[in-house]
Amino acid sequence: MTIEEHLMEQAKRAADRSYSPYSHFHVGAALLTADGEVVQGCNVENISYGLTNCAERSALFAAISQGHAPGSFRVMAVYAPNVALISPCGACRQVLLELMDRGALVICQGSDLAATRTWTLEQLLPGAFDAF
C-alpha cells in the first residue's frame, strides 16, 4: 500500500467520526507529519453553521496542538462519501496554504473512486493572500 492509499484509508476512518447532524455531509482528512505520523480530522458541525469546523482544519489544528511544526506537512488526504469528488472549501484552502509545506499535495476522493484528484496548494488557491 502506498502512503497516499494509507492516508486515504485514514481519511475514510475519520469521515466515519464526522459530527454532521444537520447536513449529513461526512468529511474526513488525514495529514502526514514530517516524522511520518498520521493525524486525522473530521468535520464537526454546529447549528450555527459559521461555527462549524471542516475536516481539513481539524486535522491541521490537531497536529499543531500535538506539537508538530506548521509548514512541515507535505500530504493531506480528504474523503467525503456523499459526493463524487470533494475539494477543500475556500477557508480551508487559505489555512492549508499557511500551515502546510509550500510543495504539499492534497489528495481528494469521493464516492467516484475514478475521480480521485491530487492538487498542489498553488492549484487550489492561485494568487492566494500570502503574508510570507
Kindly report the average pLDDT value: 95
Taking all Cα atoms into account, the compactness measure Rg is 14 Å
Shape: globular
Tally of separate helices: 4
Helix content: 25-40%
Uncertain segments: none
Report the biggest beta sheet as strand number plus sense, adding barrel if it closes: 5 strands, mixed
Describe the structure in your own words:
With 132 residues, the protein is an alpha+beta fold. Helix content is 29%, strand content 23%. The chain contains four helices and five strands; from the N terminus they run αββαβαββα. The protein has helices spanning 3-15, 55-65, 90-99, 121-124; strands spanning 28-32, 38-42, 73-79, 100-109, 117-120. Strands 2-1-3-4-5 form a five-stranded mixed beta sheet. The radius of gyration is 14 Å and the shape is globular. The mean pLDDT is 95.
Helix-strand blueprint:
Elements: H1 3-15, E1 28-32, E2 38-42, H2 55-65, E3 73-79, H3 90-99, E4 100-109, E5 117-120, H4 121-124
Parallel strand pairs: 3-4
Antiparallel strand pairs: 1-2, 1-3, 4-5
Protein name: Cytidine deaminase
Family: Belongs to the cytidine and deoxycytidylate deaminase family.
Function: This enzyme scavenges exogenous and endogenous cytidine and 2'-deoxycytidine for UMP synthesis.
Summarize it.
InterPro entries: APOBEC/CMP_deaminase_Zn-bd, CMP_dCMP_dom, Cyt/Deoxycyt_deaminase, Cyt_deam_tetra, Cytidine_deaminase-like. This protein has about 130 residues and is an alpha+beta fold.
Key features of this structure:
single chain, 132 residues, alpha+beta, five-stranded mixed sheet, globular, cytidine deaminase activity
